[in-house]
Write a structure and sequence with these properties.
The protein is an alpha/beta fold. It folds into two domains: about 130 residues, ATPase, nucleotide binding domain (Nucleotidyltransferase, domain 5), CATH 3.30.420.40; about 170 residues, ATPase, nucleotide binding domain (Nucleotidyltransferase, domain 5, 2-Layer Sandwich), CATH 3.30.420. About 40% of the residues lie in helices and about 20% in strands. The strands form three sheets. A five-stranded mixed β-sheet has the order 3-2-1-4-7, sandwiched between helices. Strands 10-9-8-11-12 form a five-stranded mixed β-sheet, sandwiched between helices. Helix 9 links the parallel strand 11 and strand 12. Helix 3 packs across helix 10. It starts with a strand and ends with a helix.
């Protein structure tokens, strides 16, 4: 069986064609909005399919999907034109089969549990650290979705500072609004955090900053202070996930893991120190191919959706 996986990421759109769980072709495009990105995806997919027709299609979006997994309900700041669009129907028109639609962090967790860093684990949480903070959770082998599609994926919007800034989601002092790539750029731009000479030069040269810039300039006191606060905020999110879902494994992924040798040990120490006294101390893992986690999870979802329809 051939599955088509489409990951509408915040900074890039990845598409892949799978035979079972084996990736046979993939393409990456720059992110656009609304119908534009769907048109680009169609062209790329048809090129990879080489005239064939997929047996299943799955699409990941960086936001909330409805309980029936057919459309994007809410995503603050990206793909606004796709809100409410029936992506399953779009897929059926374009490829002859309706798509499964899932939150990108959930899809990544499915991929890691099916054959990645959390393989063999039935109880796990995931935190994706990058442009924002994405999360997901699974209990007894099943990802948590909840009655309205919001369960498990909004731990990055837990309040960690009651006096913090208002997040685009509407909440105050969200972890994502305080410790993410976009939060760093916002804070530096507003002058609410101090930056050292080297970090300031990087901003002047590149026009933007990432978490890796903090890691690489941590010899400056200003960068070290920002990075330390970020790790503690991320740790607070993982502690909240552990208290809520009691996982055996924590999957840590996202762009930050390019500096995982610095970030991960500090994150593990924070979480293990701050968990409830009797809480299980989970192991921490990182994907070997984090860029493919979502696509691999989508391939699983597309396969399962197709085979479930064929069962008597």
């Amino acid at each position: 069986m051939m599955q088509l996986a489409i990951d509408l990421g915040g900074t890039a759109v990845k598409s892949g064609v799978f035979e079972g769980r084996r990736l046979i072709d993939s393409e990456e495009l720059g992110a656009a909005d609304g119908q534009v990105v769907l048109d680009h995806v169609t062209i790329a997919a048809e090129r990879m399919l080489r005239g064939g027709r997929p047996d299943g299609v799955a699409i990941a979006v960086p936001g909330i999907v409805d309980p029936e997994a057919r459309r994007l309900v809410a995503a603050h700041g990206k793909y606004a034109e796709l809100h409410g669009v029936d992506l399953a129907e779009w897929s059926e028109r374009r490829f002859g089969v309706p798509a499964v639609v899932e939150n990108d962090a959930r899809a990544a967790l499915v991929g890691e549990m099916a054959g990645g860093s959390a393989r063999g684990t039935r109880d796990a949480v995931l935190i994706a650290l990058g442009t924002g903070i994405g999360t997901a959770a699974a209990i007894d082998g099943r990802v948590i979705r909840g009655a309205h599609g919001h369960a498990g994926v909004l731990s990055g919007h837990v309040t960690v500072d009651l006096d913090g800034p208002r997040c685009p989601c509407g909440n105050l002092g969200c972890a994502e609004a305080l410790a993410s790539t976009w939060a760093l750029g916002d804070a530096v731009g507003r002058g609410t955090v101090a930056v050292g000479a080297e970090l300031a030069l990087r901003l002047e040269t590149a026009g933007e900053l990432g978490i890796r810039d903090l890691v690489e300039t941590r010899h400056e006191a200003e960068s070290a202070a920002i990075l330390d606060r970020y790790v503690r905020i991320w740790g607070a999110v993982v502690v909240s996930q552990c208290l809520a879902f009691d996982p055996t494994v924590v999957v840590v992924t996202g762009g930050v893991m390019r500096s995982g040798d610095v970030v991960l040990p500090a994150l593990v120490d924070y979480v293990h120190e701050h968990l409830w006294s009797s809480s299980f101390r989970p192991s921490f893992v990182t994907p070997e191919e984090p860029a493919l986690s979502v696509l691999r999870g989508l391939a699983v979802l597309a396969f399962e959706s197709r085979t479930s329809k064929e069962d008597p």
